[in-house]
Specification:
Blueprint: H1 3-19, H2 23-39, H3 43-51, H4 71-89, H5 96-111, H6 115-123
Length: about 130
């Protein structure tokens, strides 16, 4: 499973959960993405290891990095915290932010272009 396919699945699941107002599913998805961001146990990497496929490693990018964190890990943590803050704590005032994030994640899965991930990489993460 690639990160692109994972974003497509995650975005569609979040959109379904938001549309049908399935709060437990939204909380579960928020917990999964925060756990992935904190621990770096990402579902696509776990599936690749179980299938016996080596993870994709870019040796050249590690020498240019300003920050030693992976951009994907930082992105997942930031998305999870933003979902948590806007859906759990400020749902009445900022109801549109989780929808916007879910559409952006779905679009990133469909097109393999994520503006947030590109900005994090531009900031110096590998």
């Amino acid at each position: 499973m690639t990160d692109r396919l994972y974003r497509l699945i995650y975005g569609s699941m979040m959109l379904i959960a938001l549309y049908f107002n399935i709060k437990n599913m939204v909380y579960f998805l928020i917990g999964v993405i925060i756990l992935e961001g904190v621990t770096n146990w990402r579902i696509p990497l776990i599936i690749r290891k179980l299938r016996g496929i080596s993870p994709e490693v870019d040796i050249n990018s590690s020498s240019k990095c300003k920050i030693s964190l992976e951009a994907e890990r930082v992105w997942r943590f930031m998305i999870g915290v933003t979902f948590l803050l806007t859906y759990v704590f400020f749902q009445e005032q900022l109801w549109f932010v989780p929808w916007f994030l879910a559409f952006v994640i779905f679009g990133a899965g469909a097109s393999d272009v994520c503006p947030g991930l590109l900005a994090i990489k531009k900031a110096g993460c590998k």
